[in-house]
Amino acid sequence: MRRKAYLVTAIIALVVIMVSFPAEASEKTRLTWTSGGTGGGWFVMAAGMAKIIEEKAPHIQITVIPGGGTTNQPIVGTKKAELGWALPPFLVAARKGTDPYTEKFEDLMVIGGSFSDNYLHVLAAEDTGVTTMRGMMEYSKPIRVGTGKVGVSGEFTFRKMIEDYFRTNYDEIKKKGGKIFQTGYTEIATNLKDRHIDFACLNIAPPAAIVQEAALGRKLRILPWPKDLMSLMQKNYGFGIGIIKKEMYPDTLKEDVPTATMGTVIMVHKSVEPKVVYEITKIVCEIKDRLPSIHKSMEVFDPATAWKDMAGPLHPGAAQYYKEKGYMK
Q1: Domains, in order of start, for the chain
Q2: Kind plus residue range of the DSSP H or E element containing 240
Q3: With pLDDT > 90 as the criterion, what percentage of the chain qualifies?
Q4: CB neighbour list of residue 163: distance below 8 Å, 6 or more residues apart
Q5: Helix (H, G, I), strand (E, B) or coil at 149
Q6: Closest to 325 (Cα-Cα) out of 278, 258, 259, 291
Q7: Are 117 and 300 contacting, i.e. CB atoms less than 8 angstroms apart?
Q8: Are 91 and 312 in contact (CB under 8 A)?
Q9: How far apart are CA 233 and CA 161, in angstroms?
């Protein structure tokens, strides 16, 4: 009996010790998320989501860095960042190693998509009198246009648009005295207001704060895309076709504007542990109602369909969550 009493006492003592000194907290997982230009919608969305993820899972810490629609793929593909925003046309091209890439990035996988839709905003200062895309390219003065930094999706779009549709290029524009300003979104807004440029091309989710900010200092128009240009970009590069609703910019738009679109996908390097990707996927899907408070464009996100029709393979950790919820078989 005495021996049993000692055994019981020892067990109780062990339990007390375990309660008093809980297991060491989960080891920190540090990740980097490449987003968009500083001040742009992608940067804001990634920063807001990273904050919520850390709030829900303190052991997952995410640093958000600037990036771009065409540059994010190589950054994640070479593990300079583990996470990144992606646009379907460029994710497909990166995995295949086709234009604008010269090598394959086959380690790119996907967490989910349709977190927001990006719309091409081709802006013209109202004082130019330009109301159409062709009018911009045939402007009576040498055109001065902000395209975003080399590698961002707006710059890629503008370059391909003028090459494939208008049959010209940056060199020809410069020969005629024009200027191409390849700066960040914040600088584009400032340059529009200060009249250093008259036009801009941004691929961003509406309503975009940068567009609203630029319009405060100078009246702007968002130019409609002609149908044949949209069809060409859809055929050549996989762009979508959409409409910027006038309600998005009540002080700028008097009517809806047709334009090209791209969806937003979270890509991830395949080396990230499935349990980490599972946690991130779970958190993001289960705080769906909070996403529009980060950026209004994120109200389109639907966890039930986030796994469908992806431009790359789903990461096993993400697939596990969607299957557990019954979203995918």
Answers
A1: 29-116+263-324 (3.40.190.10), 119-262 (3.40.190.10)
A2: strand 240-244
A3: 72
A4: 169
A5: coil
A6: 278
A7: yes
A8: yes
A9: 8
pLDDT band per the 50, 70, 90 thresholds, residue 118: confident
Question: If you count them, how many residues does the chain have?
Answer: 329
Q: Is the pTM of this model over 0.85?
A: no
Q: What would the two tokens of residue 164 be?
A: 């494939």
- Per-residue model confidence (pLDDT) at position 26: 53
Give the separation between CA 329 and CA 322, rounded to whole angstroms: 8
Amino acid in the structure at residue 132? T
Alpha-helix runs per DSSP H in the chain: 2-20, 41-56, 72-77, 88-96, 133-137, 153-164, 170-175, 185-193, 209-217, 227-237, 274-286, 291-294, 316-324
Q: Tokens representing 82?
A: 């583990």
Question: 3-state class of 87 per DSSP?
Answer: coil
3-class SS letters over 7-49: HHHHHHHHHHHHHHCCCCCCCCEEEEEECCCCCCHHHHHHHHH
pLDDT at residue 15, rounded to an integer: 39
In terms of Cα–Cα distance, which of 129, 40, 122, 123 is closest to 85?
40
Quick: pLDDT tens for 255-294: 999 999 988 999 999 999 999 999 999 999 999 999 999 9
